[in-house]
Amino acid sequence: MTGSASRLARPLETAAAWLLGLLWILPLAYAVWTAIHPAAYVAHFAPGAPLTAANFVKAWNAAPFARYFLNTVLLVTMILAAQLVLSTLAAYAFARFPFRGSTIAFLLALLQLMVMPDVLIVENYATMSRLGILDSILAIGLPYMASAFGIFLLRQTFKSVPRELDEAARVEGAGPIAVLLKVYVPLAKPVYIAFALVSVSYHWNNFLWPLVVTNSVTTRPLTVGLQVFASVDQGVDWSIITAATLMTSAPLLLAFLLFQRQFVQSFMRAGIR
Amino acid sequence: MRRFEPQIQGWLLLLPAAVLLVAFTHYPAVATVWHSFFSTARGGRAAQFIGLDNYRDMMDDPVFWQALRNNAVFALGTIPVSIALALLMALWVNGRILGRGMLRLAFFTPTVLPMIAVANIWLFFYTPGYGLIDQLGSLFGLPEHNWLGNRDTVLGCLIVVTVWKEAGFFMIFYLAALQQISPVLGEAAAVEGAGRWYFFRRVTFPLLMPTTLFVLVNAVINSFRLVDHVVAMTKGGPDNASALLLYYIYDVGFRFWDTGYAAALTVVLLVILAVLALGQFLILERRVHYQ
Asked: Rounded to an integer, what is the distance from CA B15 to the centroid of its chain?
């Protein structure tokens, strides 16, 4: 491709990229249009259509969304906190303690990357039933609290920490946990941020397991609440359903728009292994 | 005594995570296999050992085969397209293109949305007559179409939604990999007079191979793991035309409460995932530079 062909190819390519970009943002743009206009303007694009917040108000009042929000925030916080602590300890063990059987234990842990709790819903439901914690936020979170992904990510990071730093701290009399907290954890900060963003988005959006294990307003996360709302309560009032849909996605979407760079870099970091 | 210290410390550090991993990953995986040899406990009758009966039933169950076939079609429909689009998107937003930031944003945004929200938005697009797609179609004189109610189109509709949701996610991994490729290579190729397509085919694409593999494995796993859109949009219908394997497991396990049979179905899913894991492992063994 030289000469006139490539001179023509560039703008064409830019145009194609923009077309795809437009196509990609269209569904969301359309959802926003539906949610902020009166029902009469659904699928009817008049430039001067009056704006309204009524759809959001109606959706908010039609279902206990405040409670669902609270449940999701509790769930996501609980999972993340547990994941951070447990993955840090386990990754530290794998990276710096040459204990017997550590290779096999590591491979067994990695198994969770393939066989996620998402597909073991039948047995895990039975376990929760035996534990007597069905229909609780704890039950939604438990299967995810030990994260092979987090362990893997942090182990890689901890392994790259120079031994000298570790030894220097030990010479000063710090025990294993003190070394972990003073040397390893601070150096892994970007990895923690990356992991946290990925984890929060995953569990904010997770649906099937929460659907299976919850059964009441006080435990349902937003995704399940939205599904119950959209399938039972509303019939076909699309402006209200769309408003509810946007409402449930709004916090993540806003966070993403504000911290776009961090999000993209975190997902990248999480992907490079 | 000192020699044993790291041993004990290591295990103690691992213990909390190990307990949860065993309880909610390893135990249920093994228990699934065990329970697949038992009948479902019903109305006071305890579960009984029935050997391979669940598997025999499965062989004769047309819905199981349908779900498996659907899943294969769904995987083949989503994976190549979303990977190709992801690569294209990454190449575009990695280069110096007008409005790069906006494009990145547009491509990546669907990734942040919950699948259940995405499903609800698209459910509306597919509504017969009233939805966006039929409205657009009517401008060109096309008739109304019950997209999700038709056996021939329903799976295609789910494929479109999934591609839309996933392509931007995979784009990120390609983008990360592209940024690792030294710009010197491109400069050298330009000096040699190599065209862009030639350069892509002979240099960029081979260098991206590990990423493609990683994305491929993830895409295949996702096609067996994610059924949120099936629950929200079609409930497997019409006539099981859009039932995926995990959705069928959910249906059998939690609507018909036939846990024995659901366990046997889960075993099939686990075998599929294990084969995938093994395949990935063997291929990675041959590509040492990957890690």
From this structure: 31
User: Taking a C-beta distance cutoff of 8 angstroms, is the pair B109, A253 a contact?
Assistant: yes
Q: Which residues of B touch A260 (CB under 8 A)?
A: 104-105
Q: Which domain holds residue B188?
A: 50-290
Number of domains, chain B: 1
CA dihedral A60, A219, B228, B90 (to 10 degrees): 80
ipTM confidence: 0.88
The CATH number covering residue B205 comes to: 1.10.3720.10
Question: How many CB pairs (< 8 A) connect A and B?
Answer: 273
Cα-Cα end-to-end distance for chain A: 35
Give the DSSP H/E element, type plus range, for residue B148: none
Which of B23, B26, B221 has its CB closest to that of A108?
B26
| Domains of chain A: residue spans and CATH | 67-271 (1.10.3720.10)
pLDDT per residue as tens digits for the range A36-51:
888 777 767 777 778 8
Residues of A in contact with B225 (CB under 8 A): 116, 118-119
